[in-house]
Amino acid sequence: MMGLVSGRRRATSNASSRSSGEATEPLEDDTLVVEPDQGNVLSHIISQLRPGADLSKVVLPTFILEPRSMLERITNFMCHPEMLLPIPTIDDPVQRFVAVVKFYLSGWHIRPPGVKKPLNPILGEIFTCSWEFPDNTRAYYIAEQTSHHPPKSSYFYMVPGHNIRVDGTLKPRSKFLGNSAASMMEGTAILSILNRGKDPVKGERYTLTQPNMYARGILFGKMKYELGDHSYVRCPETGLSADIEFKTKGWVSGTYNAIGGTIKNDRTGEVLYELSGLWSEEMFIKNVKTGHKEMFFNALKSKPSPPICRPLEEQDERESQRLWAKTARAVKKRNHELATEEKTKVEELQREEAAKRANDGVEWRPRLFRRVKGGPGGPEEGEEELEWIINAQMSDGSIPCYRLDVTC
Question: What is the pTM of this model?
Answer without folding.
Answer: 0.86
